[in-house]
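Reopening: structure tokens for the iron/sulfur cluster complex, inputs below.
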Amino acid sequence: MSSKVYFMNMRADFEENSFAKFQRMIKNLHIENMIKPGEMTAIKLHFGEQGTFSYIHPVWVREVVQTVKKRNATPFLTDTTSLYAGGRSYAVNHIETAISHGFAYSCVNSPIIISDGLKGQDGVKVTINKNYFPDVSIASGIYHADSMVVLTHFKGHVLSGFGGALKNIGMGCADKAGKYKMHLGAMPMIKPELCKRCLLCISSCPGKAISLTEEAPQIDSKYCLGCGQCFSFCKAGVFKINWDSTPPDTVIEKMVEFAYGSLLNKVGRVFFINFLLNITPGCDCLPFSDACIVPDIGIALSLDPVALDQASVDLVNQQHVSMNNEIEDKFLSLYPQINWQRQLEYAQEIGLGSRDYELIRI
Ligand code: SF4
Ligand code: SF4
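Re-run output (same inputs, fresh job):
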């Protein structure tokens, strides 16, 4: 059965500005059945790593906060601590980064709570009994919220091909231990003969796992987080996914199982909004925002994260790219070694939603 995906483009005029159009689109979901007076609603988003600017603009987040408040519920903005060192590695610096990116109360009208606690250790075990995990550890703030709105900046991703709603809840609702379990086994292999000795890896590796000996770069497995960022930042191609030790779909499927666990106690109480704006090749965890791969497309929302991500991929692939209009599959072109389809296939297989959708244009 197909799921409904609502979509608005970014055209606006004197009759109706984009925020009014956005509110008109949200009305289709009948959120009164999801967000109830007196309850707490987690608004899950990514505040952007220090150095980025392509995350969701805070004024859109404020619109969602207002929508929740109109239901007399209590919203809070939330994300979890990152696995690697950076500007979001524990609750205090994460909140400081968010505020420096414009998510101050004075703008968004809502407090920020980092849902896996001060150092990323506050998780709740959720039984899922799936192929990789009998249980997953979900950030306690998200677990205990009564309902959730998932706001996602849609873009490319080095480990999953694209980053959409499933990635946002799969990786983003896990506590630190959960993130580690998903990345485990993704340590890269090295082609030392390609090294140009530029030293970029020494300063860029979030785990501080790379060293450069006289002969070659080396990775210390004790510190490697399996984050895959070295595949991007080393332009010489020294770091490759080790397909022998990590089947290509493993990280993706693990992430989808965490996504399943994050929704299990909120069936019918979550909706998803993908912002197809500032569509960069890489994710917001990188410390920079690269040029966009296609022009801004619009905003899509659904009750079904699988249908929403499928529709978002399709909308991106229908766009022209500035360098080469003939590229049909943008994400495969960006990350040829990643089967982005697997994210959607596996999510459908384990009951997270449907890849069939009906696109309703607002
Ligand atoms: S970033 Fe790549 S090319 Fe530069 S030193 Fe590290 S491994 Fe060598
Ligand atoms: S995957 Fe690469 S960038 Fe990430 S921690 Fe390991 S060596 Fe560093």
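The chain has two domains: 3-182+248-361, 187-240. The pocket of iron/sulfur cluster (ligand 2) is lined by residues 187-188, 205-207, 209-210, 219, 224-230, 239 (CB under 6 Å). Marking as resolved unless the reporter disagrees.
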